[in-house]
Amino acid sequence: AYPRLLGAATSSLPTGFVPAVSWDGQVAAWVARSQSGIALLSFNQRLLELRLHSGTVDAGTAGWRWGPSVAGAERRYLVAAFNGGFQLDVDAGGFVSWGRVAVPLRDGLGSIVTYTSGQTDIGAWHQEVPAPGRPVASVRQNLSLLIDNGRPAASVDCVSCWGATLGGVSDPARSALGITADGHLIWAGGEHLTTAALATALLGARVVRGRA
Question: CA distances (Å), 140 to each of 14, 21, 24, 69, 122, in order?
Answer without folding.
Answer: 31, 25, 30, 18, 10
